[in-house]
């Protein structure tokens, strides 16, 4: 149901460490988990330290795009940074969603630095039983010549 389009994820992570924070034109990838839970797909993105208003979720046709921006925290003039390992900048992830998912009813929740999207499976994609109607009569017909 969900197709992954990021074959160079580890290479991107290493390049991001070398080149610095992501920008809107060159965002850094964000880690995610995707799994099916009952009649919906769940996709969870790690975006710790990002406020909810700095997250942007778009769906165009079957392409889901999630962008988040971790902004620097304002510091007083007398603060001297000793160590800075938490990456800042723009993070993004794009997923191609299968046609069997209902993109009109995606639910998004953000809690404890995890953005969770719940995407229902479309009714037309769910398994269903087909009723068989019996024809009239006994079902046997005699052919006379």
Task: Describe the secondary structure blueprint for this structure.
Layout: E1 2-3, H1 9-19, E2 28-29, E3 32-37, E4 40-46, E5 55-60, E6 63-70, E7 89-97, E8 107-111, E9 114-120
Parallel strand pairs: 2-7
Antiparallel strand pairs: 1-7, 3-4, 4-9, 5-6, 6-7, 8-9
Structural account:
This protein has one helix at 9-19, and strands spanning 2-3, 28-29, 32-37, 40-46, 55-60, 63-70, 89-97, 107-111, 114-120. 8% of the residues lie in helices and 36% in strands. β3 (32-37) and β4 (40-46) form a beta hairpin. The mean pLDDT is 82. It has 145 residues and is mostly beta strands. It is elongated and about 105 Å long.
Question: What would the keywords be for this entry?
Answer:
five-stranded mixed sheet; elongated; four-stranded antiparallel sheet; 145 residues; 9 strands
Radius of gyration: 25 Å
What's the N-to-C terminus distance? 56 Å
Our count of helices gives 1
Largest sheet: 5 strands, mixed
The fraction of residues assigned to DSSP E strands is 35-45%
Q: What portion of residues is helical? A: under 10%
Number of strands: 9
């Amino acid at each position: 149901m969900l197709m992954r389009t990021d074959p160079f994820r580890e290479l991107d992570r290493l390049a991001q460490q070398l080149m610095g924070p992501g920008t809107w034109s060159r965002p850094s990838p964000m880690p995610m988990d995707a799994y099916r839970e009952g009649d919906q797909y769940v996709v969870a993105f790690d975006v710790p330290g990002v406020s909810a208003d700095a997250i942007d979720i778009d769906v165009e046709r079957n392409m889901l795009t999630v962008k988040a921006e971790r902004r620097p925290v304002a510091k007083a003039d007398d603060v001297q940074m000793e160590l800075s390992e938490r990456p800042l900048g723009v993070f993004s992830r794009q997923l191609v969603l299968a046609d069997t998912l209902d993109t009109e009813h995606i639910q998004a929740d953000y809690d404890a630095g995890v953005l969770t999207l719940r995407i229902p499976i479309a009714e037309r994609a769910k398994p269903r039983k087909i009723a068989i109607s019996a024809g009239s009569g006994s079902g046997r017909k005699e052919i006379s010549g």
